[in-house]
Amino acid sequence: MAEAETWKGRVYQLEQLLRSVQRDVKVDPVPTPVRTAPAKAPQTQQPDLDHYIAIAEHAQKRAEQLEREALEVSCALSLRT
Question: 0.85 cut: is pTM over it?
Answer without folding.
Answer: no
